[in-house]
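Internal tracking record. Fields below are filled automatically when a chain is submitted to the structure queue. Please do not edit lines marked as system-generated. If the sequence contains nonstandard residues, flag them in the REMARKS field before resubmitting.
Queue: standard
Priority: normal
Entity type: single polypeptide chain
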Amino acid sequence: MLKECWKNVQDTTPLVHNITNYVTVNDVANVLLACGGSPIMSDEPEDVEDITAICGGLNINIGTLNRQSIEGMFRAGRKANELGHVVLLDPVGAGASGLRTETAGRLVEEIRFSVIRGNISEIKAIATGSASTRGVDANVEDAVTEENLPQAVAFAKKLAGKLSAVIAITGAIDIVADSQTAYVIRNGRPEMGRITGTGCQLSGLTTAYVVANPERPLEAAATAVALMGVAGEIGWENMLPGDGNSTYRNRIIDAIYNMDGDTLESRARLEKM
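SYSTEM-GENERATED OUTPUT FOLLOWS
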């Protein structure tokens, strides 16, 4: 599964339109290039429909909302739905402010999403319409652990069925689920949390993988999540004395660039539930 999904990205160079936050826009573009895809960035409402039309997928990230970008998200999302394109939502910080929570809720109501990817607090905010979060970090009370994993998997499956979307909950333990099946992924490093934007990068990566594997959105999303975790492990292994989080960010991107299907297959730790 992993190797096939990886190869399809290499063979098709999926073009992804990103309406993403300005903190991480450059890293999202570089990760898409590193994985074998191609990025376009635009949030101007008068531009987004044309850009979305020439792409295979749309990645919507609400990390730095403003009135212009919100309008662009809805216009691009409707156009992508009209064309039958892949659409991913990254509800960054949903639950942390009224604007973010309301915007995420409206997007879910009005746009059909192929994938919704966020931390557990953000995904709970999508499910309930409200939550308590610490910015873009999951509340400690919400952390997915081995002890509450069965309940978290059941929650992800139920929400996936309700929204007819793949739900990807990422953190120390990752869950990627549709209404029937979940993949639990245990790759990655805790140091990835010290880099701004690994989640944003993963959302771009996941969009590309689902575009390249249209018949297998669940498996494609799980492959992307595993790839990011494996890259985090390899990047950490390549750190040298004196390297810090800035270097680590680059080493993760380099690990994605240099990834091959065999390495991904051999290092990924997936459990099907």
